[in-house]
Design goal:
The chain is mostly beta strands. It contains two helices and 34 strands. Among the domains are: 5-106 and 172-198, no CATH class; 109-165, no CATH class; 397-480, Immunoglobulin-like (Sandwich). The strands form six sheets. Strands 2, 4, 5, 7, 15, 18, 19, 20 and 21 form a nine-stranded mixed beta sheet that branches. A six-stranded antiparallel beta sheet has the order 1-13-9-10-11-12, with no helix packed on it. The chain starts with a strand and ends with a strand.
């Protein structure tokens, strides 16, 4: 009599499907050999910004000379099978790949029952009157919407009996598996390396900037957050991160933003990554090894710098045109934006390529408790470039923009006059940079304040506003369209 498998607790049997020990073996009479994570000698993972990882998995195997099927188990569930490459590190010329398959018809109770449709199985049921458990034989007719059985010529829907199955079908596997048909020429053990790309794993950079009381210096801590949903665990992995915009063929992978939330830094840890230039990107290598578990979000220190010079800037952006809303009120009045600027230079205790990510800014209140005051997303920033962080809108510094005059001087020639009112309700003087877009071919006829032409169609006024006071800037410009 063949042993039967209870469909509800089939997981125990799966353990017998995996080989154990440090080296797999397959003799002349055994043409299929499993290679599980227990045969793994080393693993390296390179993670890219865009939901993509490169896995290098080295395992120790021993095959008899001849043709064998090698089951390479415990690979990522989101593996891209077209990127898989296998080679022998011990005897590259002695191991030849004849065929490669990726099996992903994974074992679960529903699929297990589906394989027995049209076959006779046993049901373990309990007599509701006597309480005695017994086995009955049933023909499994269907599993769509629930099992349907034929027992003693009658059709049963929703039968309470527990299905008992004789074995696991050969075409069902416990986990995603790569299967190679190999022609091997050496009887000794050898190291093989499987390389593949997988989705479901990504990383991002998060930064915490803590300002001092004067808002002119701060401490910066950078963290790497790794999110692994690839379907595999990478134990004691050599970890590398690539910062840069990698191009991929359309349809190969969908780039997804990593989700997560970063906790505030209590003390700056020692950076764990070493940075190097790599092609047109930057590569960050982790000192030592780490384990990245499936469905795990892991944080590792990227950088730490203290007393960084910071420049705070208030900017009032004008509007391109003068509009009125449905109530006749002008909507061209913008709020005064608050920005922090950091020069990514070596003399500022930085000067390393900064991966794109979110910068969260904190400042201590009068009691000494750190309070969150804003965040912004920055792009990849090379060394010696500047990082500008939008903090929000000023509360005590307000602006108002009014069009004082508009005249048509000649065909396609106009004169327009603007007045910008800035009011400072703080108990200290501030400087506001007013940025005004000017369309067409233009010439400033007169201006109340000195200005600079920053671009072909933009001028700017640096304006000092005394405490608890206000300043009005007016200028007239001639436009030709």
């Amino acid at each position: 009599m063949r042993p039967y498998l209870h469909a509800g607790v089939f997981g125990t049997l799966l353990l017998s499907l995996a080989a154990v020990g440090g080296t797999i073996e397959a003799g002349a009479g055994k043409d299929t050999a499993p290679a599980t994570e227990e045969h793994q000698q080393a693993v390296a993972v390179t993670i890219y910004n865009g939901n993509l990882g490169l896995v290098k998995d080295i395992r120790k195997i021993q095959l008899a000379p001849g043709i064998h099927d090698l089951q390479f188990m415990d690979v990522a569930a989101q593996i891209n099978p077209t990127t898989v490459h296998l080679k022998s590190l011990t005897d590259p010329k002695g191991l030849r790949i004849l065929e490669q398959n990726y099996e992903y018809d994974l074992l679960n109770p529903q699929k297990l029952l589906e394989k027995y449709v049209g076959k006779r199985i046993k049901l373990w049921e309990k007599n509701q009157y006597t309480g005695v458990e017994q086995q009955v034989e049933a023909l499994l007719l269907s599993v769509n919407g629930g099992p349907i059985y034929q027992i003693d010529g009658a059709i049963h829907l929703g039968h309470p009996g527990r299905p008992i199955l004789p074995s696991i079908p050969d075409n069902l596997i416990a986990r995603p598996t790569l299967i190679w048909r190999l022609e091997n020429s050496t009887p000794r053990s050898q190291m093989i390396e499987a390389t593949y790309l997988t989705g479901g794993i990504t990383w991002r950079a998060d930064y915490v900037l803590t300002l001092n009381a004067e808002d002119n210096r701060g401490d910066l801590g950078g963290w790497v957050t790794i999110d692994n949903r690839s379907g595999a665990t990478y134990k004691d992995a050599a970890l590398k991160l690539v910062a840069g915009d990698i191009h991929q063929a359309v349809g190969e992978r969908e780039m997804a933003d990593a989700m997560g939330k970063m906790a505030a830094r209590a003390e700056a840890p020692k950076p764990a990554f070493q940075e190097e230039g790599f092609f047109e990107y930057h590569l960050y290598s982790l000192d030592g090894k780490t384990t990245v578990k499936q469905n795990q979000s892991k944080q590792i220190s990227l950088l730490s710098a203290s007393e960084i010079p910071i420049r705070k800037e208030l900017i009032y952006y004008g509007a391109q045109h003068y509009y009125r809303n449905r109530y006749g009120e002008p909507i061209s009045n913008q709020k005064v934006g608050v920005y922090l600027e950091v020069a990514n230079k070596k003399e500022n205790r930085l000067g390393i390529p900064l991966p794109k990510g979110v910068v969260r800014v904190y400042k201590a209140d009068r009691s000494g408790a750190a309070q969150f005051i804003g965040e912004d997303r920055i792009d990849h920033t090379p060394k010696d470039e500047k990082v500008k962080i939008k903090m929000g809108e000023a509360f005590d510094v307000v602006g108002q923009r009014i069009q004082k005059d508009w005249r048509k001087i000649a065909p396609q020639v106009y004169e327009v006059e603007w007045e910008i009112s800035l009011r400072n309700h703080k108990d200290e003087a501030v400087e506001v940079r007013v940025v005004e877009p000017i369309p067409g071919d233009w010439q400033v006829l007169h201006s109340s304040h000195a200005y600079e032409k920053v671009e072909a169609h933009t001028l700017a006024f640096p304006v000092n506003i005394p405490k608890e006071s206000g300043v009005k800037i007016s200028y007239r410009v001639r436009l030709t369209f």
